[in-house]
Specification:
The structure holds two protein chains of two kinds. Chain A is 30% helix and 22% strand. Chain A is an alpha+beta fold. Chain A has four domains: 186 residues, Aldehyde Oxidoreductase, domain 4, CATH 3.30.365.10; 187 residues, Aldehyde oxidase/xanthine dehydrogenase, a/b hammerhead (Aldehyde Oxidoreductase, domain 3, Alpha-Beta Complex), CATH 3.90.1170; 351 residues, 2-Layer Sandwich (Aldehyde Oxidoreductase, domain 4); 38 residues, no CATH class. A seven-stranded mixed β-sheet of chain A has the order 3-5-1-12-9-10-11, with helices on both faces. In chain A, strands 7-15-14-13-8-31 form a six-stranded mixed β-sheet, sandwiched between helices. The radius of gyration of chain A is 29 Å and the shape is globular. Chain B folds into two domains: 76 residues, Ubiquitin-like (UB roll) (Roll), CATH 3.10.20; 75 residues, [2Fe-2S]-binding domain (DNA polymerase, domain 1, Orthogonal Bundle), CATH 1.10.150. In chain B, a hairpin with a 2-residue loop joins strand 1 and strand 2. Chain B is an alpha+beta fold. In chain B, strands 2-1-5-3-4 form a five-stranded mixed β-sheet, sandwiched between helices. The longest helix of chain B has 21 residues. Classes of the chains: A alpha+beta, B alpha+beta. At the A-B interface, helix 1 and helix 19 of A face helix 2, helix 3, helix 4 and helix 5 of B.
Chain lengths: 858, 163
């Protein structure tokens, strides 16, 4: 393959960029249908309760209410994982978190629907609730799910190599508990679903269902709708309009997607449900609060001998992706460094809080924070440079790690070199003024899970390409563009392969009626898998064009060159000229060509007869020739990961393996204000091995976005809970960083050209996130000498650590605690929120006035 | 609540609408006028996705009443493109990766339009500070700064060629 690409590797605007910039692009909430009703969901006010009775009669009588749906209207359980079918469209017997779904009103407008919610009478029997995973694990009674003893959704215990021997060989062993608090995706677009049945002409009854939804996984949604509604999948069409960001939050079936369909069925009218921002926080599926007990051993010369990790994840009320998340946490301890011995004990625990699921860097981020922090600590202990200890433990690919992960392309060494070089690490580390520091960390991620959720031999991606006489190339792909640019990626790959211009290519994506199955946009799989399927489909159709063109030009297939909207015969001695010639002619050719493509067959044949065999055909001419020759011009391609990349045989081996891994190294420069405890990130140098950057602008955007999101988790973002209630369900309180809080990120692309990726490409959207948190933690250590073991690194935590370092009295944040609250601070599952007395109230505060007047009676 | 007739002037065109007095400007734009470019991203005026210009000043249309804008000139993202073509800032957002999912983009368009109208050559800090009224969850903002710089350059070149 030549490196002389015309479209691959060029920075280009996304194919849907204009629609986004002008507001003409349609997201789910921008859609409406005649007779459409608005759905509103009644949520549980209790974290754990049995529903004894629901009376919807008063709500149903309200003018404008068309239907009220409850659990019994669709009692089949579902869940994204086949092992985790524990959710219902609407609660059938119990609610398991504040915000769980109880009933849905479909009414003529939002105000009526909201009014009707207040008229639904629900009688609850409140049950004891669990908010902390370690407490939940002790439970014997009032289990969240009856079939999950001790509220443990799933636990895994893996031993690879000989960890005991490994620790015996170590000269230094570090052991610590790390906690990463809960974060959520907070995609800018609140979830929205519009569901409509159409009337079957033969039965006269509601027949096919069309669901337009903000989803990353249209195919899985189609599958789960079929389960819950008891309809064949062929009768359900799922269309993904523009999606306003996902980050994993739309990578499974979100309650409203099922509820809208159930309500539409009951109301016999189209129903649209759009979440409020608060509901988005309840729907959640974010990164769980994770408690990591980590032990690492190294030799005096910096070689890692063994790692032992116990991970407890606070999963919330249902399974969701939980089983996969807890497996990723262990599996991706491997494949970054060469670690000979690994012991992993993972517990996914149920609690009475909104459900955690997949979020950017699924399962790996929190464990990576712990591991990279501990490695830094060990480097300091043995007096080794933190960058050098990472270089000391590199893999030697191609190889298979101790836990069965196959690694081929491996750009980590170059990534480390690049960030060390660009950040001036060697000159500046340790020489910055007091309170300012540099930290380094690395991370990696899968380029798609090698095993799909539903274990089978089905291809993970399939792509069809249709070319007609107009010379237009239409790609039918199931890939779900959620803003990452997959539509652009498939267009680029097809255009490059066919040697045609991008403007010729039209992408039809993510519509289960039109596009072949693709399992969705998650685990950073789309470029690798759908890209490969697109490449194969394009090669398939190119072969057909070539065979017809070769006949016309009286030459062999190998002599043909597809370039610049033309198919030309490559003359041996012309070589480079042949590349240039079509380019010169292309502008003229495209004008006349556009007309020619539409000429009736007879006149075109006459034209060809006049001309005789030639050295070059325009793309349209070649396409018309191919259609005349083959009768039709379509190409198909599919991708399934190779067997050798699918991992080992142990229980849980299915999660972690990937056909390729991306690599990332980062240096963060921070300053810490020792008075206020405030941490400022000044700059992050982030290098990322994405195999090949198909579109450098997009790749840089993904790297910067990942680093930025990692910085949010490191410094400000945190879901704060009190008795199962989310205390900060708004974007401002959740503290997603704004432009003034965001550092400069220098994205550095490293290309390792993966042997199996499309044009050598791997993932670039998730892997960088995990390195940012430890890079900042390590930089804080460099700046002020404190090791932070709990994220986010808020001023409170930084100050507490600084006081601790100076051996000052520890500030007990639970001092003055409400005597009725649990004895331990952490049992709320959060950290900042506590039942304290709070600041003294203002004299005019009503509560204080009352207290004063009561006092006055004495 | 009884509806009242309200005249709204949006993107240089007048519309007569029957609206409840409590109707928010964002709902009037999206539901009554079908101008769905302005987005709702939050419940509490924290995200800026619904930003429109009211008499040239960026306002959050999710927290103002449509009736309060009578007689004022409202510009939405649909009114930014020029003669059916992309304005320089819209083109630059595409070229430089200023949008990823694009949901926040309409709001940013309005904020940037206001910034550049009042400060044609802003410093980096001024750009950062101006953009802080809008949230984006995809880009980390860096590529937006590049896009804004490119748009300023394109505008200056455009003006230069006109001369």
């Amino acid at each position: 393959m030549t490196n002389d690409f015309s479209i691959i590797g060029k920075p280009i605007a996304m194919v849907d960029a204009a629609g986004k910039a002008t507001g003409s692009g349609k997201y789910a909430d921008d859609l409406s249908l005649p007779g459409m009703l608005i759905g509103k969901i009644l949520h549980s006010p209790f974290p754990h309760a049995r529903i004894k009775r629901i009376d919807t009669s008063r709500a149903e009588k309200l003018e404008g209410v068309v239907a009220v749906a409850i659990g019994q209207d669709a009692p089949n359980p579902y869940g994204i994982l086949p092992v985790g079918h524990d959710e219902h469209a609407l609660a059938t017997d119990k609610v398991r978190y504040v915000g769980d779904n109880v009933a849905c009103v479909a009414a003529v407008d939002e105000a009526t629907a909201e009014k009707a919610l207040e008229l639904i009478d629900v009688e609850y029997e409140v049950l004891p609730a669990y908010f902390d995973p370690e407490e939940a694990m002790k439970a014997e009674t009032d289990l969240i799910h009856d079939n999950k003893p001790h509220n443990i959704e799933k636990d895994y215990h893996h031993v690879f190599g000989d960890p005991d021997k490994g620790f015996a060989e170590a000269d230094h062993v570090a052991e610590a508990r790390f906690i990463a608090n809960e974060v959520t995706h907070a995609a800018m677009e609140p979830h929205c679903t519009l569901a409509a049945f159409e009337i079957d002409p033969h039965t006269g009854q509601p027949g096919r269902l069309t669901v337009q939804s903000s989803t990353q996984v249209p195919y899985y949604l189609q599958h789960k709708l079929s389960l819950v509604l008891e309809m064949p999948m062929s009768q359900i069409r799922v269309i993904k309009p523009l999606v306003g960001g996902g980050f994993g939050g739309k990578s499974e079936v979100i309650p409203l997607e099922i509820i809208a369909a159930v309500a539409a069925r009951k109301a016999r009218a189209p129903v649209k449900i759009t979440y409020t921002r608060e509901e988005v926080f309840w729907a959640h599926r974010g990164r769980p609060r994770t408690i990591i007990d980590l032990k690492t051993g190294v030799t005096d010369d910096g070689r890692i001998t063994a790692v032992k990790a116990q991970v407890v994840q606070d999963g919330g009320g249902y399974c969701s992706y939980g089983v996969v998340t807890i497996l990723y946490s262990g599996a991706l301890l491997g494949a970054l460094y060469d670690i000979p011995n690994i012991q992993y004990d993972g517990y996914r625990v149920l609690t009475n809080k909104p459900v955690c699921g997949a979020m950017r860097g699924h399962g790996t981020v929190n464990v990576r924070f712990a591991f990279e922090s501990q490695l830094d600590e060990l480097a300091a202990r043995i007096g080794m440079d933190p960058a050098a200890i990472r270089q000391r433990n590199l893999l030697k690919p191609p190889c298979v790690t101790v836990n069965g992960l196959r690694v081929q392309s491996y750009g980590l060494p170059e990534c480390i070199e690049k960030v060390v070089d660009r950040s001036g690490w060697k000159q500046r580390k340790g020489k910055l003024p007091k309170g300012r520091g540099l930290g380094v960390a690395c991370s990696h991620y899968v380029s798609g899970a090698a095993n799909s959720i539903i274990r089978s031999d089905m291809p993970h991606s399939t792509v069809h390409i249709k070319i007609d006489r107009d010379g237009g190339v239409v790609i039918y792909t199931g890939a779900s563009d959620i803003g990452q640019g997959s539509d652009t990626m498939v267009a680029q790959i097809a255009a490059e392969t066919l040697g045609c211009s991008l403007s010729r290519v039209k992408v039809v994506a993510a519509d289960t009626d039109l596009t072949p199955i693709d399992i969705g946009s998650y685990s950073s799989r789309v470029t690798f898998m759908n890209g490969n399927a697109t490449l194969r489909a394009a090669q398939d159709v190119k072969k057909q064009i070539a065979s017809a063109a070769a006949r016309k030009m009286n030459c062999s297939l190998e002599e043909l060159l597809f370039h610049n909207d033309a198919v030309s015969r490559q003359n041996g001695h012309l070589g480079a000229d042949a590349l240039v010639r079509p380019a010169e002619q292309s502008s003229a050719a495209s004008v006349s060509g556009r007309v020619e493509g539409q000429i009736l067959r007879g006149s075109l044949q006459q034209k060809r007869k006049d001309e005789g065999p030639k050295d070059q055909m325009t793309f349209e001419e070649a396409v018309v020739a191919a259609i005349d020759f083959h009768g039709a011009l379509t190409g198909t391609g599919s991708y399934a990961p190779p067997q050798e990349a699918r991992g080992g045989n142990h229980k849980g081996a299915g999660v972690g393996p990937s056909p390729a891994y991306s690599y990332s190294a980062q240096v963060a420069e921070v300053s810490v204000d020792e008075e206020t405890g405030e941490v400022t990130v000044h700059k992050v140098w982030a290098s990322h091995d994405c195999g090949r950057a198909l579109n450098p602008v997009s790749v840089e955007g993904q790297i910067i976005g990942s680093v930025w999101m990692g910085m949010g988790q490191a410094l400000t973002e945190e879901m704060i809970w009190k008795d199962g209630m989310l205390m900060n369900p708004g974007l401002l309180e959740y503290r997603s960083p704004s432009s003034v809080e965001s550092p400069v990120v220098e994205a550095i692309i490293v290309e390792s050209i993966d042997p199996e990726g499309p044009f050598g490409a791997k993932e670039c959207s998730e892997g960088s996130l995990a390195a940012t948190i430890p890079a900042i933690a390590n930089a804080i250590y460099d700046a002020v000498g404190i090791r932070l073991h709990e994220s986010p690194f808020t001023p409170e935590r930084v100050l507490a650590a600084l006081r601790d370092k100076r051996s000052q009295k520890k500030i007990d944040l639970t001092e003055g605690i409400d005597p009725t609250s649990p004895a331990k601070f952490r049992e709320h599952g959060g950290s900042l929120c506590f039942r304290g007395k709070g600041p003294e109230r203002h004299p005019l505060d009503p509560s204080r006035r009352e207290a004063l007047s009561e006092g006055g009676d004495d | 609540m009884k509806k009242e007739l309200i005249e709204l002037r949006v993107n240089s065109r007048s519309h007569e609408l029957a609206l409840e007095p409590s109707t928010l400007l964002l709902d009037a734009l999206r539901q009554d006028l079908g101008l769905t470019g302005s987005k709702r991203g939050c419940d509490d005026s924290s995200c800026g996705a619904c930003t429109v210009l009211v008499d040239g000043v960026p306002m959050l249309s999710c927290t103002m009443l449509a009736a309060s804008c009578e007689g004022q000139e409202i510009t939405t993202v649909e009114g930014v493109s020029e003669h059916g073509s992309l304005a320089a800032i819209q083109k630059a957002y595409g070229d430089w990766g200023g949008s990823q999912c694009g949901y926040c983009t309409p709001g940013f368009m309005m904020t940037v339009k206001y910034l550049l109208a009042h400060n044609p050559d802003p410093s980096d800090d001024e750009i950062r500070s101006a953009l802080s009224s809008n949230l984006c969850r995809c880009t980390g903002y860096t590529q937006m700064y590049q896009a804004i710089r490119a748009a300023i350059e394109a505008e200056q070149k455009g003006i230069a060629t006109l001369r």
